[in-house]
Write a structure and sequence with these properties.
By secondary structure, the protein is α+β, with helices and mostly antiparallel strands. It is built from 20 helices and eleven strands. About 40% of the residues are buried.
Length: about 600
């Protein structure tokens, strides 16, 4: 390795060591089970093709579903739907399953020769191999990103760009803790694709073109919208605003038309795997496998929310990407040929990504769907650093400060959304909660109420008056699937009161970890059967298994007229029971 490339190599090694530390010591996800295990949620859906095909021998009818729901597997997060012919289509495309296949094969051989682990597709060997195989994919992606950056930039600029993307963006979480997600694999595909494209337009070789077609097809098979990357392959290195350069590219394509035909054929061959699967299961080559609630809002993309929302704002959680946005202007000034293809890709990619109606993408630290675009966005970022390097010491110092601050913020957000347990899952964040906890490293359990309500009272209580008292120790309320809800009789707060504090002592032997299923304590103000105001908290956020605890919610009394107030307890589809004692409602005035 050239001594002139030592800084980028050091950065790559630091990223590799960080991957190793995060995945083996900090957050060994392969050791976890259930919804916290590797093969859960989306990953469980990507992966489902493999056990269905090679273990349970029923990719079409999914007759083994009861096995998945039973001990010791207990997988309930796979997704798909049955069709009129009895066939079951898996929600997600097959691209990830194909990429998991080498790691699955090793895991299956391991399990089949083990006296401890079951060869059921979900035991420890499978969790482990998919997890660490995915971490290997992340390293390969960083390795190729460094290679392609060194073709265009100095060693120091490459080092800064690598450090920014790994340590300063949400890629760090999706290269390690969530490495088995599609975004990590697509990042690597795109990094390799960029390297192949850069070399192809220097030395056009048929083998390179076929490889490019394979990568584009695999990306589209993993996530159909990734077909946009074909724009990079076609327009790389030309100014598409120049008729002269477009003409040269057309001449190039004609000259090497066999290369392009081979690339397109390879891309289609790989992508056709999905059509073959759909036809095999349903008799139709094209199927919309997502639910009816999923789809695109192309006429109203969620641009502001996707950029800045506390739920999943891209720039809020990866602010170092501001350097990339600034870098586009510099890239335009310095190299219009690179600018055109990358900027065109960026505009179309973000438009499609931000148009998905579930714009927060389920559980997402920032916009996770942006991660796969980072190899392309590394170019304007690198141009930004090259530009700043030639500026005054003051500007360099300010940029260095922001660089370190943004890395600090990303590490903080990554930690707090996983081991720090501050965020739980970011899609359930509220603005009030985010403002309260941003930058803090220690969790205050009482702050978790702000995930559900934007009100809290922290001062001294004045003139308290108990207006409701129910459920003594001898006569508790039990909420379970057979008795899923409860409402108090209407009550009337003191006319001079400004707040209500509703308190209850709760106990459960087993927590409900799905946020949308957690039991709610609701305080409502009602007029003519219409809720003038209603605040709630999810109770299991504040409980520990088999530990009784008093929990309260403070709600300001509305200025609007209302007929009465009422407290409700609602079980949202959970099978876990919860016991309540000493439900009290106290009205009080604010401290002046």
């Amino acid at each position: 390795m050239s001594v002139h490339h030592k800084w980028s190599l050091i950065t790559l090694c630091l990223a590799a060591l960080s991957l190793l530390y995060i995945t083996t010591i900090y957050y060994p996800r392969y050791e976890r089970t259930g919804v916290n295990g590797t093969l859960s949620y989306d990953v469980g859906g990507y992966y489902l093709y493999l056990p269905a095909t090679f273990i349970y021998k029923d990719l079409k009818y999914f007759s083994f579903q009861d096995t998945l729901k039973s001990d010791p597997i207990n997988v309930t997060t796979y997704q798909g739907k049955f069709h009129d012919n009895g066939g079951f289509t898996i929600k997600y495309p097959a691209g990830m399953a194909i990429q998991y296949l080498p790691f699955f094969t090793v895991a299956h051989i391991w399990a089949c020769n083990s006296k401890v682990h079951a060869s059921n597709g979900y035991s420890f060997p499978y969790q482990t191999m998919i997890y660490f195989g995915s971490v290997l994919i992340a390293f390969i992606g960083l390795f190729y990103l460094r290679k392609v950056l060194l073709l265009h930039f100095s060693d120091s600029i490459t080092s800064l760009t690598l450090a920014s993307i790994f340590f300063g963006s949400n890629y760090m979480a999706y290269a390690s803790i969530n490495a088995a997600m599609s975004h990590n694999y697509l990042f690597t595909i795109n990094a390799i694709l960029l390297y192949k494209i850069s070399n192809y337009y220097k030395t056009p070789i048929l083998q390179q073109a076929v490889y490019m077609g394979f990568l584009i097809g695999l990306a589209a098979l993993t996530r159909p919208t990734e077909i946009i990357t074909a724009l990079i392959a076609v327009f790389w290195g030309i100014n598409i605003l120049s008729g002269k350069e477009l003409k040269k590219r057309v001449q190039w394509i004609r000259r090497y038309k066999n290369h392009y035909i081979a690339a397109i054929t390879m891309a289609f061959a790989v992508g056709s795997i999905q059509f073959i699967y759909w036809y095999y299961v349903t008799g139709n080559p094209i199927v919309f496998s997502y639910s009816n609630d999923d789809g695109f809002d192309f006429l109203s993309p969620h641009i502001w929310k996707c950029l800045f929302s506390v739920k999943a704002g891209w720039l809020l959680y990866s602010p170092i990407m501001f350097f990339t946005l600034a870098g586009f202007y510099i890239l335009y000034q310095k190299d219009k040929s690179l600018f055109c293809s990358i900027f065109l890709y960026f505009i179309l990619f973000t438009y499609v990504t931000f148009s998905w109606n579930n714009w927060w993408y389920g559980g997402s630290l920032g916009q996770r769907a942006m991660v796969q675009s980072y190899p392309f966005l590394a170019f304007p970022m690198a141009y930004f650093y090259g530009y700043i390097r030639c500026k005054s010491k003051a500007i360099i110092c300010i940029t260095t400060f922001l660089f370190l601050l943004f890395i600090y913020m990303n590490i903080w957000a990554t930690h707090m959304s996983h081991n720090g347990k501050l965020f739980l899952t970011p899609p359930h964040l509220s603005t009030a909660y985010f403002k309260k906890v941003v930058g803090t490293w220690k969790q205050n359990n009482n702050d978790l109420k702000l995930l559900d309500t934007d009100e809290e009272y922290l001062d001294e209580i004045i003139k308290p008056l108990v207006i409701l008292d129910q459920f003594s120790d001898d006569d508790p309320l039990i909420i379970n699937p057979h008795n899923p809800d409860f409402k108090t009789e209407p009550f009337y707060p003191d006319p001079n009161a400004e707040w209500l504090r509703t308190s209850v002592t709760a106990f459960t032997s087993e927590l409900e970890y799905y946020n949308w299923k957690q039991t709610q304590l609701i305080v409502s103000f009602i007029k003519d059967d219409y809720k003038v105001k209603s605040n709630f908290i999810r109770l299991q956020r504040h409980l520990k298994p088999s530990v009784e605890k008093e929990i309260y919610i403070d709600v300001s009394i509305p200025d609007k007229a209302y007929d009465y107030a009422q407290v409700s307890i609602l079980l949202e589809g959970s099978k876990k029971h919860i016991i309540f004692r000493n439900l009290t409602v106290t009205s009080f005035e604010e401290s002046r």
